[in-house]
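User: Hey, quick favor. My workstation is busy. Could you predict this chain's structure for me?
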Amino acid sequence: MRKVYILRMQEELSYTVRAGQIKDKRQDFILCASPRQLADLAARFGLPAIARLEGRFVLQHERSGVIAAELAMDALVTQVCVLTLEPFDATIKDTASLRFVPEALLRRTSVDAEGDGGDDITPEALDSPDEIPYVDDTIDLGAALAEQLALVLDPYPRKPGAVLPEEASDDSASPFAGLAARLGKPDGG
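Assistant: No problem, here it is.
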């Protein structure tokens, strides 16, 4: 039997909802991070600043405690350009489909899948909504919003209009030209 380990993230942004309260009707929840929460998230993600983080969740009960969620996220973050090392502001607008699944149900599904060959990655599985486990009938929408922000942040942010310095982008010089010059050997061989 394969063990599933689920690590809880730090909860800089926490807004909990009882899964049992989500019935057949769709329910809307709007979250806006406070200045303190924004500063804590910026520190966790290694960003100079986060000026705005808002999320609109539309939740609806599917079956067996599974809650389907549509998230529309709007954020304004300050990132550092990988080329110029200058900070710049980036607006992030993203949508995501999520499913909050009771941890026991997710664990049981994982054990069942292990019996028939393990977890196969299929194109259908890649297109399906992300599944987020929850325990004790408590869904943390704030933690889900923070996690989605972390997923959409550009790992190599580039300031608009930033270009490599000319000496770094010179295609005519081979990487060994400097070494060849030092050794007194002709370049090209």
